[in-house]
């Protein structure tokens, strides 16, 4: 159902709370229809219109059942925006929309999951893992899959780092996952200083 077909041409300031929330919900439903058709840009336009009806000045005035009604429209729009943006590889924007929802509902599973996916795509594996674990439920196959992907990424990174540092410190050196980088730095610095000292000693002789 398109919003234009409802005849809601009244300025938002002249709408009652129920009318304004209802109009936003219509924009959201139009966005969902476009999303199902994989028309992501069109879907986002509808969600943005819905969010515009739920601006901060409006939300600040609400309490009780009206606040709950508004959030029931506004938060899904932000979550759906995040889903669209992830599909479009616009991960930082997706994280922003998830954070808006989490500011209202810190345990929102969809917001945590989508922020985790976006963070993982940006290479922020620790942040992604934290969100996935917070949202985790044993029956949630999606989160389990994402955690396995992260685990595989960490293992691949560990193996790559192991080969790099084996060449620097010798075949017997082992780099453990998430080993303290400061220790590695001082080891490398000490090795360079020893070489420099030996070179100077040899030159003096």
Automatic annotation (TrEMBL):
TPR repeats lie at residues 24-57. The keyword Isomerase applies. Keywords: Isomerase, Repeat, TPR repeat. SUPFAM superfamilies: TPR-like (SSF48452). One of its GO terms (molecular function) is isomerase activity. This is Peptidylprolyl isomerase. The lineage of its organism: Eukaryota, Viridiplantae, Streptophyta, Embryophyta, Tracheophyta.
């Amino acid at each position: 159902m398109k919003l234009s077909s409802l005849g809601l041409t009244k300025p938002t300031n002249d709408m009652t709370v129920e009318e304004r929330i209802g109009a936003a919900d219509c924009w959201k439903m139009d966005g969902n229809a476009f999303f199902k058709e994989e028309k992501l840009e069109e879907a986002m336009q509808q969600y943005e219109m819905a969010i515009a009806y739920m601006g901060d000045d409006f939300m600040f005035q609400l309490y009780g059942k009206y606040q709950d009604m508004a959030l029931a429209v506004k938060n899904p729009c932000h979550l759906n925006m995040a889903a669209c943006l992830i599909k479009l590889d616009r991960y930082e924007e997706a994280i922003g929309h998830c954070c808006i929802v989490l500011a209202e509902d810190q345990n929102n599973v969809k917001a945590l999951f989508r922020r985790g996916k976006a963070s993982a795509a940006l290479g922020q594996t620790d942040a992604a893992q934290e969100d996935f674990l917070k949202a985790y439920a044993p029956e949630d196959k999606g989160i389990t899959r994402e955690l396995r992907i992260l685990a595989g990424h960490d293992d691949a990174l560990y193996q790559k780092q192991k080969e790099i540092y084996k060449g620097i410190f010798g075949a017997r050196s082992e780099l453990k996952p998430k080993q303290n980088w400061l220790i590695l730095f001082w080891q490398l610095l000490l090795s360079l200083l020893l070489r420099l000292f030996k070179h100077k000693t040899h030159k003096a002789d």
